[in-house]
Amino acid sequence: MDLSNASIGQLMIPVDNYDRGVAFYRDTLGLPLLFAAAPQMAFFMCGPVRLLSGHAQLE
Fold first, then answer.
1. Is 37 helix (H, G, I), strand (E, B) or coil?
2. Neighbours of 57 (CB within 10 A)
3. Which residues contact 20 (CB under 8 A, 6 or more apart)?
4. Segment 34-45, tens digit of pLDDT
5. Helical H runs in 1-59?
């Protein structure tokens, strides 16, 4: 498999505290908030990559 020309469209970064995670990515880093599905997920744009910040469901 050759992934040399592949690109990343979305990354998921888990957070323990949803509100603090949204505030960090939106207010501290200044990433545009695309939409939120509180209290689980928030989507931001980081250049050409969509960033999903939310709770990881490890059960």
1. strand
2. 7
3. none
4. 999 988 999 999
5. 18-23
DSSP 19: H
Tens digit of pLDDT for each residue in 9-59? 999 999 999 999 999 999 999 999 999 998 899 999 999 999 999 987 655
pTM for this prediction: 0.83
* Cis omega (within 30 of 0) for bond into 39: yes
Q: Which of 51, 46, 49, 55 is nearest to 19 (CA)?
A: 55
Comparing CA positions, the residue from 46, 48, 17, 14 lying closest to residue 31 is 46
